[in-house]
Amino acid sequence: MNLSIPGGDLDLLVIGETLIDFISVEETESLLEATTFQRFAGGSPANIAANVAKLGGQAAVISKTGMGAFGQFLKAELGRAGVQTQYMVMDHRVRTSIIFVSRTKGTPDFEPFRDADFRLEPREISEEAIARAKVVHASMWPLSREPARSAVEKAFVLAQEQGKLISLDPNYSPRIWPDTREAREVIRHMMSYTTLTKPSLDDARRLFGEGQSPEHYIARFHEMGPRVVVFTMGGAGMILSVEGQQTFIPAQPVKVVDATGAGDSFWAGFLMALLDGHPLERCVLFAREIVGRKLARIGPLPDNLDRAEIYKAIEMGNG
Question: Whole-model pTM above 0.90?
């Protein structure tokens, strides 16, 4: 099955956190043992935009940072990656959000220090950017606090009115949003605007509790609105569910060097293949190939990824 792609000169518009990632140099499951950190431009939506740009797509970001060195660093790094940054808001009254992250082969430990990211206001959502975009994407971070929650909803309302594809990452974390009941209510409402979503098994367990089957979790997400659910389970593979019709896709065997950013790499690969007009199952295979390349290296994806070469690898059975 293919999704109809709306018009626009901008492949992807992301809305949400743009922040500084301080990622541990040492590989560790816990930040308690981390002593040395390296600075990266981060935030899931910003990472997805950068990865789409590395794949040759046109991506832009709406977010808020401070005007100090960290905010300037983020804007410069995103621009260097090829992301359009004219819709970013830099505000002297706030400080750029930062997060400390452990480097690990599994789910990273992290500790956030938030300010600017959740202070994005509805009036700062660019209607021009929405009109230009084919896909409008957000994550759970901005939904966790006002006024960013209302800003994302404004963007989704405008996008829905204009027939855009809307994607939402249900990357819920109690550390970001301690009130799970409120999180469920908000995500249920926001998913009603959404075309597609990509929960991980960890996301689903944090939102809906332990002990349920993947099929149960997938049904919960479909009930909230999205036609397309891609349910990822790490090394156990993934399930593509289109209006309840499910296809299992195994994980790609790969030696894991660094899992940080794997989910963002999957999102970028899936959305880029979708915008290239491929069937949804092929989009998952393309995303899986991108994730394999991310897992096999420390740090972000390399620049100037060759989409044609990756599609060829899939056709040859290497993806």
Answer: yes
